[in-house]
Amino acid sequence: MFNAQVVNWAQMPDCWFDVDRVPELLERVEHQDDAEAWKELGCRLVLEHDLVSPAGFAALPDLVRLAPRRAEARGLAGRILERATGRHGCDDLLADCANAIKEFREVLDRHLRSRPADYLMSFRALLAVEEESTGRTPWRALRTTSITWTAPTAAWG
């Protein structure tokens, strides 16, 4: 089993305030391709596409271990990190994920070099990793850069 020996899941409620489903779902997705389990896991770890539950941060190392071979794991880990800068009251749990975040960056870097079909999702996850690792948003440079667009010179008839 994944993180069960390290994480006290009884203290890690998911978005539905349950403490037993996330470890069960992680076990299911590790051993079988189960779209319903991935969907439920996503709903339990990230609430309304905005807030991350304590179980989300606790599950992050497990998702990172699955990420090299599972697009669902890359996507869900990325969604968790995209929301990590918001208010969640779990800064200590996020700090405990530093090694997993570093590993996730390496996984994403290797994956993106392969020009995958899920490039955009993986790139967004990489941006979230960079923001979490450096404390700066990678988009800051783009917001302060002036981009000039010139209309084509062809005659409009």
* Helix-strand makeup class: mainly alpha
Mean pLDDT: 83
Oligomer classification: single chain
Radius of gyration: 18 Å
Question: How many strand elements?
Answer: 2
Describe the main β-sheet briefly.
Answer: 2 strands, antiparallel
Number of domains: 1
Question: What do you see in this structure?
Answer:
- There is one protein chain.
- This protein has 157 residues and is an all-alpha fold.
- The chain has one domain (9-134).
- The chain is 57% helix and 3% strand.
- It is built from eight helices and two strands; from the N terminus they run ααββαααααα.
- Strands 1-2 form a two-stranded antiparallel ribbon.
- The longest helix is centred in the last third of the chain and has 16 residues, at 98-113.
- The N and C termini lie far apart (68 Å).
- Mean pLDDT is 83; it is low at 1-5 and 140-152.
List the helices and strands and how they pair.
Layout (H helix, E strand, L loop, with lengths): L20 H11 L3 H11 E2 L3 E2 L1 H13 L4 H12 L8 H5 L2 H16 L5 H16 L5 H5 L13
Antiparallel strand pairs: 1-2
Helix pairs in contact: 1-2, 1-3, 3-4, 3-6, 4-7, 6-7
